[in-house]
Specification:
The protein is an alpha+beta fold and 861 residues long. The protein contains 15 helices and 41 strands.
Length: 861
Amino acid sequence: MFKKVLIIVFSLFILLFAAAAAIPMFFKEEIDAKTKSSINKNVNAKVNYKELDLSIISSFPNVGIKINNLSIIGIDSFYKDTLANVKQLQLNVNLWSVLKGDTYQINSVNLNEPNILVKVLKNGVANWDIMKPDSANLTTDSLKSTFKAALQKYSIEQGTITYDDASLGLYMKLDSLNHSGKGDFTQDLFTLDTQSKIEKLTVKYRGIPYLNGVKLDAELPVEIDTKNMKFTFADNKIKLNELLLSAIGYLAMPNETDMVMDFKFDAKESELKNFLSLIPSIYAANFKDLEATGKFSMNGNAKGIYNEKSLPAFNVNLLVENGKIKYPSLPSAINNIQIKSQISNPNGVIDNTVVNVPSFHLEFGQVPVDGKLLLKNPVSDPFIDMALKGKLDLKQLTAIFPMKDMVLSGILDADVKAAGRKSSIDKQQYEAFKASGQIIANNFNYAGKNVPMPVSVPSAKLIFSPKNITLSNLIAKIGSSDFAANGSLNNYLSYFFNKNQLLQGSFNMLSNLVNVNELMGPKVTGATPASNESKLTVFEVPGNINFNVNAKANKVIYDNYDITNAIGTLLVKDKTITFKNMGMNMLDGKLRMDGTYATINPKKPKVDVDFGIDNMNIQKAFQAFNTVKLLAPVAKYAKGTFSTDLKYNSDLDEHMKPVYSTINAEGLTNIIQAMIDGFEPLNKLAASLSSDKFKKLELNNVITKFKIKDGRLNVAPFDIKKDGIVMNVQGSNGIDQTMDYNLGLNLPRAMLGAKANETVNAMLGKLNSKAGTNVSVSDNVKVNAVLGGTFLKPTINLKYGIADAKSTAKEAITNVIAEKKAEFQTKAQAKLDTVKVKATEKVKDAIADKLNNLFKRKTVN
């Protein structure tokens, strides 16, 4: 009998289990359709999810609804922002409500790995405001008709939540958030018990980080009054890193714009070490081994209304008494720490905020440092009263704090005071603003594994006054570069108090060596393994300074250039460096330069310079300047010197190299002396003329105009004369190495090879045949050579000056008429027929003489 009962019970269990497994299959499509329909009717955003799963066994007696890979992307101003990206959203819905089919009663919600971005623009528009305007009145009814919230609990696992409110200047980020809450949300008044753990909590207000990567662990029961939207905090525990806090009071949201608050907070355990745990650098550096003693207390309160126009009244107090900080592995400590500070605002008007640190004192080893700070009226007319006095041996810091692989030494002696209002500075009433003191540095050294280059300052002195900071006796070395400087910083107080004020300065600087390659930052290795060339990065000129620098450097290393005796004036303003009267020796010559380097658009720096170059080595110029390599490749085969004057402007790329298509330049070049040998276009010309004499070309005092535009070098006509040869050169070549040059040669026939002479004789015979003449070529032959192709694969087309007798005669007549035109002008008032007759006779005689000279045979003695 018992066996039969057992079989029946087991069969019923199997039947129920099968039914429980089958029920979700019947309702999946219906729930999926209702979910999508509800979203589409009410949400003004792009909502997608990969799949919707239902289960009853794991969530019994509820139906588990799992929505996988849910994403919500904004539109309009937020079309690039993802409001939410949730790996899995799980809803546990009352089974009976599913079976009834009218409404679904939600009992719990779980978000697994949500990434949520809550964003508010400066104009107050928020990305979470995604409900359709025309459905505002229908939303509640629609959702109630489909889903009914009967929450008992909710949770977030491994979430990331970012709140970025540009309208308030508030930024908050919660990394690795695990949060859960339990309470009866069906009640108007209930207690919500929450537990939260955040691996990294960051809070910034108006750019100032108040919490930076802090670990939070909190147990926070909250009494919730849903009718009045009031949240009351009962006894709670909040742990920030190692600091324990408690907060009591309430927060209410009576309308859409205001937050009404009245709460107090206090640090429960008054130990200095717990407060230091909030400082990231200290917390990360062997915090467990840190010995910190002394009394610490912090408390505060906030009461009032918080919205876009007002703040609550608040008060924050911090006190450290008899503090000491020491790492056991290091010999020294910070002793006798005494700090008292208060930040208060009596009525919520931000201009009435007062920051008051009446005194602070600490001792690095045995060396005391004292100071004070008072700040009032930060908005309307800031008032500041501060002082700092102390003599610090920087080497003591390495004996106090762990500084692995770092060298720090030197003495800083400071005694500085300042007191007054910003308005006095604005009105240039410097006598009303008291600023005085000095900072002296001696034998300062800073180096280490993570320091880009060692810094050494044997001496420097800064003297403060209301008008300026005077720099004197500065001697410094950064990497291999050395500097000696003096000068002054003007307008520094206006620069400090006003965002749009320029920091003005005037300096004299002297250096034995400036290694610009080092100072411009890390080197970027060339893309190809075979290339060992280090590439520069763009140096961005600051836009908030106005400096005048008179500089002199005995040697400058920039890119591949070795520069000596550099001198000139640099003006730094509006993200532009202006060079005035710059001069330097480089590449065996002298360079003069006036112009600008601008980074108004840092991605597209611009240069606009007037150059003057005297007696520079052609080969070294070719090796140093990529522009010469690409636009004047003939320089590779030339040995000698040149001078030039040119105006140049172009864009630069990310490696400070010219963007060749943007180059615009024009100038005048004097090739003082050069020998061109091995240049393929000359080899091609020599082969075409059957003469090896053209393989080498000697140039002396050759002057030519040129212009670079649209990636091509355009050369104006110029003459080369040597050993009886006259060569006229004009044309252009491009970055793509293509050529388009015309060479007009007048050269002795004896210089032509046998093949070229045969060509000339054949053409002469053809000419005599057409013209009915019997003439021969004179000692000199005119040749027009058209160079095309590329520098490595040139083409050449030769045309001789006697190619067509009719065109030659016509050209000769034209030339003679031009020569005699001035002679005939004095007879222009005579009778027209007489003038024509006489002019015709004279022209015929002149033509006859010219033709005889052009075609006469050589007389043989």
